[in-house]
Specification:
- It is built from 18 helices and 19 strands.
- By secondary structure, the chain is an alpha+beta fold.
- The chain has a seven-stranded antiparallel β-sheet, with helices on both faces. A seven-stranded antiparallel β-sheet has the order 13-16-15-14-17-19-18, with helices on both faces.
- Helix 4 packs across helix 8, helix 7 packs across helix 8 and helix 13 packs antiparallel against helix 17.
- The longest helix has 22 residues.
- It starts with 7 loop residues before the first helix and ends in an 8-residue tail after the last strand.
- The mean pLDDT is about 95.
- The chain binds flavin mononucleotide (FMN).
Length: about 550
């Protein structure tokens, strides 16, 4: 694949899955997906008889591996031991620390999986009356669709193999026996961290579980939710003093075949190495076809072809292609601030960070949609969150120390010492640039697809990218990377809010209106990710 030339697939997908408001005569629902005149209803969810249930993968013929803390799920979340590292420190670990040999054991892997894709608690009902089982990481519409697999050498408590984390009973199931890490070394074109890793995590999406509601846009959600979930994975790994690195360059078909997923209905989104050192990878057994019985989640599934087209069109065929693909990461240059209206951030020092560890924070996190519009949030807390969220993470396709692929804009409604307005974040200067002054609560609500919580919150944080530059550097696969990267940065900040007594929620937005409002005149910009945060309004005592 000539990576710089082929970008049409990603562009077509982006245009076909934009959200916008349309006149009533175009679509009576007003809220549509696509680009005029080619628009369609945004939300599907038409046939409740085929609602994907349960929202997790169940291997019906594989025995569960007994592990300690095999309690009902909510209790597991509560019983998992706390780390000692402050959450705001764990959240910003780059991923290469600490140095030296670091080999996780079985219980450590289960702990990472639990705190990123396990059950948190039940609560609330869906429109059809079923109870929602919330997970430890948020997910678009609670239409959870991600699975985690571990490809391991011999570890303490676990023989070499490929394991699926089974959320339903908080356990592992062995999908293959044997050390298959060499298959991944080849599929990634010899990515150095893979060669050193005792464990490689593979994250997949079963697109239908999300697409049943969101149609083709589920493919964006795959990378948003992967970013949200990987925030937990990386932070918990950091808290356990395990290095970790995200890998986006791999031969898709080879990895899917290894996991025994078809690459179409369920596909690998990313890999991540966990730990360093231990026994070197042995010669891998042959990768035979797998026929494990998996629980049917819908009697019939509907295909949204743009998902498959985009995924196939952004796939890599071999390890050699993967190595070439990642060889020249985009190093974005930031122009000088356009104005002299700069505000220096005033973050808390490391030794003044709140002590709350990441495990506790994950247990307490839930989406916040009710904000206290009578108060402003503290500038130090705000500065700490923004400052910490701009630090990078180890990823094979991103240059260490480079600016993120996206630009971050904050619509500030109520932060002490800051004039309300739109600010651009300048990570390397530790500063914000005021680009538009004013109280934009109404505009925030409108941009977030008319969701009022965005206008009532204290800050909206938007990630936008120059799509020409990203696709020019990475081809179609850059679209996956850009969505994921913006989501991961955003989710770090999102999660961090809870450490300073605030709350947050992800959102969806009207694509073109966001670009017009935040980066007027820059048509190459694309809206990627938004979440909002602030001080929660406590329920009035009755
Ligand atoms: C990327 C992302 C986008 C989201 N978008 C919206 C949204 O547009 N509106 C909304 O009410 N909630 C949104 N959410 C919140 C989810 O609905 C929420 O995470 C899910 O219901 C699980 O609940 P919890 O976060 O309280 O665990 C979003 C979450 C994520 C991670």
């Amino acid at each position: 694949m000539a990576r710089n030339d082929e970008t049409q697939v990603a562009r077509r997908f982006h245009d076909a899955t934009k959200y916008l408001e349309v006149p009533e005569e175009v679509n009576p629902q007003r809220f549509a997906m696509g680009t005029l005149p080619n628009v369609e209803n945004a939300i599907w969810q038409e046939d409740w008889s085929i609602e994907p249930v349960p929202p997790y993968k169940v291997y019906e013929d594989l025995p569960r591996i007994e592990i300690p803390l095999a309690l009902p799920s909510m209790e597991v979340a509560r019983e998992i031991p706390q780390g000692t590292m402050p959450a705001l420190q764990a959240l910003v670990a780059y991923g290469d620390e600490p140095q030296g040999k670091r080999v996780p054991d079985r219980d450590t892997l289960v702990r990472i999986a639990m705190l990123s894709n396990g059950f948190l608690k039940t609560g609330g009902h869906r429109a059809d009356g079923t109870v929602i089982e919330y997970r430890t990481a948020g997910g678009t519409g609670a239409r959870y669709h991600l699975e985690e697999y571990f490809i391991t050498g011999d570890l303490e408590g676990l023989e070499a193999g490929i394991y699926h984390y089974s959320a339903q009973d908080h356990s592992l199931r062995q999908v293959r026996k044997g050390d298959f890490r060499r298959v991944l070394m080849e599929a990634t074109g010899g990515e150095p961290s893979v060669a050193e890793a005792p464990v490689i995590l593979a994250m997949t999406s079963t697109f239908w579980r999300n697409a049943w509601r969101y149609k083709g846009r589920a493919y964006r959600h795959a990378f948003w939710d992967a970013g949200t979930t990987m925030t937990n994975v990386l932070a918990v790994a950091a808290s356990l003093e395990l290095p970790a690195k995200v890998i986006f360059g791999f031969a898709d078909a080879a990895v899917n075949a290894l996991l025994g997923v078809d690459g179409d209905r369920e596909a690998t989104l990313l890999l991540a190495t966990i730990g360093r050192g231990g026994d070197p990878a042995a010669e891998a057994p042959p990768v035979t076809a797998l026929n494990h019985r998996v629980r049917v989640i819908s009697e019939r599934e509907v295909e949204f072809p743009i998902i498959g087209e985009t995924h196939r069109g952004s796939s890599l065929a071999s390890g050699t292609e993967a190595a070439t693909w990642r060889a020249h990461p985009l190093v974005r240059l930031e122009p000088e601030p356009a104005s002299d209206r700069m505000v220096a951030l005033r973050p808390l020092a490391d030794d003044a960070l709140p002590a709350m560890p990441i495990e506790d924070l994950i247990r307490k996190r839930r989406s916040t949609r009710n904000y206290d519009t009578d108060v402003a949030i503290d500038f130090e807390a705000f500065s700490t969150l923004v400052d910490r969220s701009t630090r990078g993470f180890a990823c094979d396709a991103l240059a260490p120390g480079a600016l993120p692929l996206h630009e971050q804009f904050l619509i500030v409604h109520a932060v002490k010492e800051l004039a309300p307005g739109v600010y651009k974040v300048h990570p390397q200067r530790g500063a914000l640039e005021l680009v538009k002054e004013g109280l934009f609560r109404e505009q925030s609500t409108r941009l977030a697809a008319m969701q009022e919580y965005a206008g009532k919150s204290h800050v909206n944080s938007y990630g936008l990218t120059d799509l020409d530059a990203v696709l020019g550097a990475y081809g179609n696969r850059g679209y996956r990377l850009a969505q994921f990267e913006a989501a991961l940065y955003g989710s770090r900040l999102h999660l961090g809010t809870h450490a300073v007594g605030l709350g947050a929620v992800g959102s969806t937005s009207f694509d073109d209106e966001v670009v017009e409002f935040l980066t007027p005149g820059r048509e190459q910009m694309a809206y990627l990710f938004v979440f909002v945060f602030g001080k929660r309004r406590r329920k009035a005592a009755s």
